[in-house]
Design the sequence.
């Protein structure tokens, strides 16, 4: 029933023909791999360009974009179909409020995602930022605690505002590589991914420029300062992640309700108490009562009890 209501992905027609061809080619590749539906989850801090990226991918304005961080509080899923393929893309509110991870926002996102299957995570940040800090790490940590470390095997780091002029003395590619390194490091630390695992399965970094003023090439496709045609490149990287042999993430009750690190181990408490009773408390009690029984009572005590001969 629901699928009948999903609208045609008409926004794809807005793209230049060259981009359309590449995108349809990638959808064809997915269909060959028997993937006929794909759900993309978009997360990150507020104001980094999550909603704009959703709109850029779909080629239509479905998510509200705001320059002043007055974001919607609820996640939003938009579904489109094209040639038998269904694309679901979920925009989420920023996870930071007042300098902390907004646990309430995270709870709402969890409930929204319940029983959905996530094929790809887009972790969005800006390319034109010069630092990462503990807050970034907290955001990654919160995402990982909510949905599990395996989500990162289905993850991409998306850096928006990619049409930038790097500060003096740095080339675009140099700036890009340093910024990517810094964000990836924060993801690794925040998600507590082992260095070796991270090297074996690197998380791809992709660039996005959502501005209408993005440069275009002779085919009308949006290009970055390094000449990359970013939209087909983003969709290609998404396709690669889907085909990387890992399983999509089913967000079920078990995943989001347990095992919270704070709760972990609680099940052992009654067992430890029982073991303590049988192996510590009972033997001690037994020992004490044996001692009492074996004790030879002093004469004065026996006398007080009327058991001793009064002559002594
Ligand atoms: P969200 O809070 O993460 O959903 O971010 P929005 O998509 O609402 O974007 C926040 C602001 O950044 C808006 O004013 C957007 O127009 C702007 N913005 C988003 N992405 C880009 C980008 O790639 N380049 C430029 N120049 N501006 C962007
Ligand atoms: Mg938004």
Sequence:
């Amino acid at each position: 029933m629901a699928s009948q209501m999903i609208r045609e992905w008409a926004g794809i027609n807005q793209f230049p023909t060259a981009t359309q061809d590449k995108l349809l080619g990638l959808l064809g590749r997915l269909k060959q791999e028997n993937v006929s539906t794909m759900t993309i989850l978009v997360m990150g801090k507020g104001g980094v360009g999550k909603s704009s990226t959703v709109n850029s991918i779909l080629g239509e304005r479905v998510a509200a974009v705001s320059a002043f961080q007055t974001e919607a509080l609820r996640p939003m899923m938009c579904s489109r179909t094209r040639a038998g393929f269904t694309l679901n893309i979920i925009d989420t509110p920023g996870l930071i409020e007042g300098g902390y991870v907004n646990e309430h926002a995270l709870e709402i996102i969890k409930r929204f995602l319940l029983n959905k299957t996530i094929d790809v995570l887009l972790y969005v940040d800006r390319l034109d930022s010069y630092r990462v800090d503990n807050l970034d790490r907290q955001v990654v940590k919160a995402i990982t605690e909510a949905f599990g470390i395996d989500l990162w095997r289905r993850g991409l780091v998306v850096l928006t505002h990619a049409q930038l002029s790097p500060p003096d003395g740095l080339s675009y590619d140099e700036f890009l590589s340093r910024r990517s390194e810094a964000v990836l490091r924060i993801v690794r630390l925040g998600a507590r991914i082992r260095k070796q695992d991270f090297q074996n399965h690197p998380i791809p970094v992709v660039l996005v420029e959502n501005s209408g003023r993005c440069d275009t090439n002779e085919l009308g496709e949006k290009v970055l300062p390094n000449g990359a045609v970013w939209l087909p490149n983003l969709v290609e990287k998404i396709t690669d992640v889907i085909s990387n042999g890992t399983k999509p993430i089913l967000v079920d009750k078990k995943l989001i309700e347990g095992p919270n690190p704070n709760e972990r181990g609680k099940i052992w408490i009654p067992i430890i108490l029982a073991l303590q009773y049988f192996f510590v408390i009972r033997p001690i009690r037994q020992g004490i009562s044996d001692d009492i029984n074996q004790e030879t009572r002093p004469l004065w005590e026996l006398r007080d009890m009327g058991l001793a001969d009064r002559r002594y």
Summary: The pocket of guanosine-5'-diphosphate (ligand 1) is lined by residues 46-52, 65-67, 71, 94, 160-161, 208-211 (CB under 6 Å). The CA atoms of residues 68 and 89 lie 23 Å apart.
